[in-house]
Amino acid sequence: MKVENTKAQMRKGILEYCVLSILSEKECYPSEIIEQLKEAELIVVEGTLYPLLTRLKNAELLDYRWEESNAGPPRKYYGLTKEGESFLSELKATWSILKKAVNQLENKTL
Amino acid sequence: MKKTTTINLAGMVYHIEEDAFQILKDYLTDIKRVFSTQEGVEEMVADIESRIAELFQERLNKNKEVVTYTDVEEVISIMGSPNQFDEDYDEAEYEENKSETQFNQKAESKRLYRDTDEGMLAGVSAGLGHYLNIDPVLIRVLWIVLVLVGGSGVLVYIIAWIAIPEAKTTAQKLQMKGQPANLDNIKAFADSVKEEAKTGFKRASNSVKFTIEKGNGAITTVLRMISRLIGFVLIIGGIVSIIALVLVFITKSNFVFVNGIPVFTDVKTGVGLVFEDATLAVWSIFFVALIPIMFLIMLGEMLTLSGKKKSRAFILTLLVIWFAAIVTISVLGAKTGFDFKERYTSVERQIVQVDSLDLQVNLFEDDLKISNEMEYSFNNYLSIDEEEIKMGYARIEVLSTPDSIFYYTVERRSQGGTLKSAKINSEDVRYAIAQDGNVLNIPTRYSFPKSSKFRGQKVTVKIFVPQGKQIVLNGNLENYPLKVYTRTHFSDDFIEQSSTWKAADLGMEFKGFLE
Predict the structure, then answer these.
(1) B482-484, strands of its sheet edge to edge
(2) Neighbours of B352 (CB within 10 A)
(3) Are A46 and B51 an interchain contact pair (Cβ–Cβ within 8 Å)?
């Protein structure tokens, strides 16, 4: 068992949640999402985001609108749909349970 | 200086170096292919393109208007290769659309293509080798066996040639080898090909390869195949020849002609029989034969495009050895030839006292059988031991004489470089007839010292019978070089058995067989 694989899997599970969280604050275009994810060290290569966005959009959790940019090409601003919001609140609940569970277990072992 | 091209990326115009454009294009194509099963892949790629456009934008300014190769490399490393997307995230995607096993299959699946790069003919064997993960040489050997056993291999090969597609694109070449066709692999492959092309061009510039690969098209393809086939035949033929040559040199499979009779022996002994410097002569003969075969194999390697070009020094060395060997063997041959120039026959005359009318003659077969023709013709004729060379069959003649007593002569004949050495050689020939009462024991063999070499030594015994007296010849004489001079000079018909002969005034007379 490789630690890299496990790490990738852990990241993978929360990446969707994080992307949805970012977009729940405000609408973003991909570069902004990437910036935040990179800051949080959640992604290694930027390409990772795009299949994820496409998938969330295909699942109708995300939608987007075009906006002109004064530097470079026009930008796609992604935001949550209604389904996206309810999806996110479910994930939020699950995440807080998980967080609690992990904290509790970690503290016990300490 | 580099040529640039113009691209439209997310609605923006960019000047980009041509090689940079090529890897960018490959990269995007690769992403499309990897995510081809995903809905909305076009849009995703469009998003990625606009991100790339942004990243380019960051790298351009007033003083830098062109996207360079390095820029594209940097951007690609920031974006990551599609299989990195996979590793980080996309397994779930596949699980949605496909079962786990299918995913694995996709990652590792191999496809059967003909590999015309590594192939000898049409690449069937090389392709099968990749597919079955075994050495193509084994498959080629199997073809050869199939061709030899009834020729079915030819038909099967042609069918395979038609049925199996050729691996043309890089992706197909990778699939053929079971490597996933992702960007990293394609790039690595392209680099290796480039490298190979660089070194290969140099090496091929003065060889057949160049002229063959320069052209492109059906005729060239056919010519290349024919040349590969010829090359293949040359290599196989050459290897077989070398094996045969070595076998000839280490086994007793050669024959030399001794007094006109072929004798089987190994090369060293055969050559040593005649040549003074046997070892030198043997090696010279070996190299004279070996080096042209090596050149044929090298030509074959060049034709099949599989061989590394041999260095000029190597070829030159071979040529020098070859010429040296030819000169050596010529000199030795000429020297030996001169040793046969002169001829000398020494004659010894011996009276035979008998107290009866008949002289019994026994041919005694000192370990030399004379019973059948094969043995007569070949190996029993000659035997060589540490000290001497024994040769078979002294020639024996029976004649009538007007003299009143039995006598015989022994003629020892030999050749040599000078009359003197011919005489010495002839005197070195050992042959002894023994008389025992009324019986004359005549050996069938004579011998000479090994050191005097074969110089055409021969022994002839003539037995003279006084007229009115009889001679009895004992033994199975059918194949023996024994001649009885009769009135009509024919005798051979009668002497396959022991027989009695009477001397008359014009020749011998047949009296009858014994028993």
Answers:
(1) B342-352, B406-416, B458-466, B395-401, B482-484
(2) 17
(3) yes
Give a yes or no: residue B211 inside a domain. no
Which of A41, A44, A55, A75 to probe by mutation at the B interface, max B CB count within 10 Å? A55
For residue A33, how far is the Cα from the chain centroid? 8
**Does one domain contain both B322 and B265?**
yes
CA A57 – CA A81 distance, rounded (Å): 9
Q: Which residues of A touch B9 (CB under 8 A)?
A: 73
Query: Which residues in B have their CB inside 8 Å of a CB on A?
Result: 9-12, 31, 35, 38-41, 43-44, 47-48, 50-51, 53-54, 57, 77-82, 84-85, 87-93
Q: Which domain holds residue B82?
A: 4-107
Q: How far apart are the first and last CA of chain B?
A: 111
Domains plus CATH for chain A? Answer: 3-109 (1.10.10.10)
CB-nearest to A53 from B47, B77, B88 is B47
pTM of the entire predicted model:
0.44
Looking at the structure, do residues B39 and B128 belong to the same domain, yes or no? Answer: no
Note whether ipTM > 0.90 here.
Answer: no
Q: Which of B50, B83, B107 is the last residue of a domain?
A: B107
Decide if B80 and A52 are in contact by the 8 Å CB cutoff.
no
3-state secondary structure of A13: helix
Residue B349, domain member (yes or no): yes
Do B228 and B326 fall into the same domain?
yes
Quick one: B227 and B327 in the same domain? Answer: yes
Same domain for B114 and B79, yes or no, is: no
CB-CB contact of A53 with A59 (8 Å): no
Count of domains for chain B: 4
B279 shares a domain with B135:
no
Contact B189, B125 (CB under 8 A): no
CB contact under 8 A, B51 and A55: no
Compute the residue count for chain A: 110
B449, B428 contact by CB (below 8 A)? yes
For residue B409, CA distances in Å to B333, B426, B440 come to: 35, 15, 13
pLDDT by residue, tens only, chain B of 515 residues: 788 889 988 888 889 998 889 889 888 888 888 887 778 888 888 888 888 988 888 888 878 889 988 899 889 888 888 877 754 444 444 444 433 333 344 445 677 888 877 776 778 888 888 888 877 777 777 777 776 666 666 667 777 877 788 877 767 777 777 766 666 676 676 666 666 665 554 444 444 444 444 445 666 677 777 878 888 888 898 899 898 888 888 776 666 666 666 666 777 777 888 888 888 888 888 888 888 888 888 878 877 765 555 667 788 888 889 889 889 989 998 988 888 889 999 999 988 888 877 888 887 665 555 444 444 444 556 777 778 888 877 888 888 888 888 999 999 999 998 999 999 999 999 988 888 888 888 888 888 998 888 888 889 999 999 988 888 888 766 667 778 888 776 655 556 678 888 888 888 888 888 76
User: B117 and B103, same structural domain?
Assistant: no
Assess if residue B436 is contained within a domain: yes
